[in-house]
Amino acid sequence: MMFDNARIKLTAWYLLIIMAVSIAFSLFIFRVADHEMVRIDRRQQLLRERFKIEMFRRGMLEDYNVPIDIIDLRKRIIFTLSLVNLVIFMIAGGAGYFLAGRTLKPIKDMIDEQSRFISDASHELRTPLTSLRSAMEVHLRDKKLSLAQAKSLIAANIDDVNKLQSLSDALLQLAQYQKPNHSWLVEPLRVDQLVQQAVRRLEILAKKKNINIKNQAENHKMEGNKQGLIDLLVILLDNAVKYSPPNSQIVINSKKTDRSVSVSVKDEGIGIAGKDIPFIFDRFFRSDYSRSKTKATGYGLGLSIAKKITDLHRGTISVDSKPDYGSLFTVRLPVKQSSHKS
Ligand code: ADP
Fold this sequence. Notes:
The protein has helices at 2-57, 70-141, 147-178, 191-208, 226-242, 288-293, 302-312; strands at 187-190, 212-216, 221-224, 249-256, 260-266, 316-322, 326-334. By secondary structure, the protein is of the alpha+beta class. Helix 2 (70-141) packs antiparallel against helix 3 and helix 3 (147-178) runs parallel beside helix 7 (302-312).
């Protein structure tokens, strides 16, 4: 509705400008033509006078007076110019409406995306908040609540609050990368160093499950946003650890061609069912398989953030996975980043 209103308003502005120019131009043409007609008419009258005198002298008295009909000509010019203006009005109206639609489309898409994001996010926040509140209410009503029970309630609450915090952190991170005028510091980087920093952030988690992270990334040089790329690798590694059984292995590899660098993260985890693969980069998507097979918590935001970061680098992210065997995530990024804001 708002979009349609804006579209009509924008069309009206286009039309106003084009018609103002067109009418001014028509008036100018009319004045020039009128001026010219009057001049020609006057000259012809003069010629006719001379002609008449000549004829008179020769004793011929027929009337050769056929003056041009200025009034009629004027009417015809006005008619033609009005017709031209009408045609311009119609074409400009149609084209304006079309162009206004095209101009506003990205803005509309962005607004739709933002409101979808807000409604998704509030929905996700509501569920844990409701359970948190009802747990507290139930315990509060319990008159015989012991100190030990109260303590265990608080511990459970802290768990919930931690989850909520990680949700809000992920939402903030996603919103930050989703900003339309996200300005982006691009610097020369080394792939092996990026991977090292990401691995360091997951060491403790991996150690808890006795998962070995094998870093085989090489010292390829590339350009990119350091924090963004580390976040991206952390997300892939975090998933690999989360969805892998204890005592397994995660291998990170890198490859370089003239134009691109690819980094892959391979795990021996639960894998992803073929039917779920098209959706794993969607916001809030979590496969039923991973939910039923593991106790891994998450909100389905990681991969959508990873995808956003890859897009900002004009790269691609792909996955190859087989349930119960493992997954291979590959990120391919251009070596050079043309300086851009996206
Ligand atoms: P989550 O917070 O649920 O991990 P992600 O967006 O990171 O959210 O991932 C979306 C879904 O993709 C996960 O819920 C899981 O089902 C699947 N997935 C992602 N990475 C892996 C992996 N390495 N192994 C198996 N499944 C994975």
